[in-house]
Every structure is written in structure tokens, then in C-alpha cells.
């Protein structure tokens, strides 16, 4: 609890901020097709600014609850809290073995994890399914079955990365870690940067505001500074900050700084 809730402010620097921004991309599903697809199903009565704030708030609260549940258990048995994605499959099972009633808790945990994975898979599958249904005029059943099959095949090496394919590495990564690195560290910030540039400069900020005001006209008309604030960030700060996140997450920024040092 002290580790989570009593931060060492002296360690807050530019690098830690970039790491936090990179994590925000992943946990909020920014820079990917999921939010665009969800947005296409929103009605004109939905309040986008309010919805965005609620999502950020609830995501943060759930992350804190998960952190308290997981890291207190990991620290209590003296295991490494920095195991990354492997924490679920390597560290946590060791925690369950050592705790009273761990067998029952392990079953409950992995059942809930399976539900979370299944709902996330359905959510992300909708992105590619929507494309083939809307743009290619495929039958929805055909799109769902074929895309599920292809994605399942692509996921098999990830499943085997910590057992049968444990010794198989690409650029020092096993298949699961490589896919995780490409998706989280490259594609998400790259997608976010391109979306910010497209909305702010190509599609046009004024057109974006028209859509933003649907369902939130009173809120934004009474607070015009919000639109100005968003415009400045969207056009100038967001692309630059996201580009720095991209350079940092891929390790390029560290190499550039090493050259100057």
C-alpha cells in the first residue's frame, strides 16, 4: 500500500511522464480503431466530453483497485512486481499457491480474466468486422467467422510463447512480447499521433467541433475556453507529445539522448 499510495516525487521526471503517457494509450485504447468504431455507434444526443471524462475517471479507479489487489499479494510473498505481462502467468500463480485458499482464488481470478479477455476480444473484433461489413459489404456472419478464425491462428503463437515456444525469440523477444511491443509501443502512439494530425489539420478542427457539440452544446457554449484549450492541445501539443512517447517507447529517444551525452 505504501508503494502504491506514497510516491517518491524525486523520481518523477520526463522519462516517467513519457512512460505514464504510453500506459495511458494502452489502458484507454487510444490510437486504435476501437474508439473510432464505438464513436460511429453513438447517437447525436450523447455527450462526448462527459463520456470521455467518465471513461478516464472509471479507468483510473479500476486500475487503482487492481493495483491494490495484485501488488499487495505480490509483495507479501516477496516476488518481482516488475514482471510485466508475465506477471499474470508466472508470478500470480506462485502467489496463489502460497496464500490461504489460493486454489479457489486462482480459479476465480482466471475465470474473471477469461471473461475480460473474451469481452475485449469481441470488442476489438468489431473493428475489423465493421470494416468488412460497411466497406466491403460482407455478410456480418461471414465477417465474424472468418476474422475470428484468422485472429485465432495469429494468437496461437502468443499462447505458446511461455511454454512450447519459450526458446523461440525474434530480436530478443518471444512472440507474445514482440506482438505486445509492436502493438503497445509502436502502433498505439503512431495511431494516436496520426489521428491528432488528421483531426486538427486535415479533416479540420471546425468540423470536429460541430460533431463534438452534439449532445454537449450547452456545456461548450457556456465554456468556450474548453474548445480553445482543446484546439491548442490537439493541433500543437498532442502530436509533439505523442511523437516523444513514440520515440521513447521504441527506445529511439534514449539512443538520441545517449549521442548527446
Describe this structure in words.
- Helix content is 77%, strand content 0%.
- It has 261 residues and is mainly α.
- The protein has one domain.
- The protein is globular, with a radius of gyration of 21 Å.
- The mean pLDDT is 85.
Brief descriptors of the model:
mainly alpha, 261 residues, globular, 11 helices
SSE blueprint:
Layout: H1 2-5, H2 14-27, H3 33-40, H4 48-76, H5 86-98, H6 102-134, H7 140-159, H8 175-213, H9 217-222, H10 224-249, H11 252-260
Helix pairs in contact: 2-8, 2-10, 3-6, 5-6, 6-7, 8-10
Question: Any idea what the radius of gyration is?
Answer: 21 Å
Helix content: over 70%
Strand content is: under 5%
What is the helix tally?
11
Run of helices and strands? HHHHHHHHHHH
**How far apart are the termini?**
37 Å
Short description:
Helices cover 77% and strands 0% of the residues.
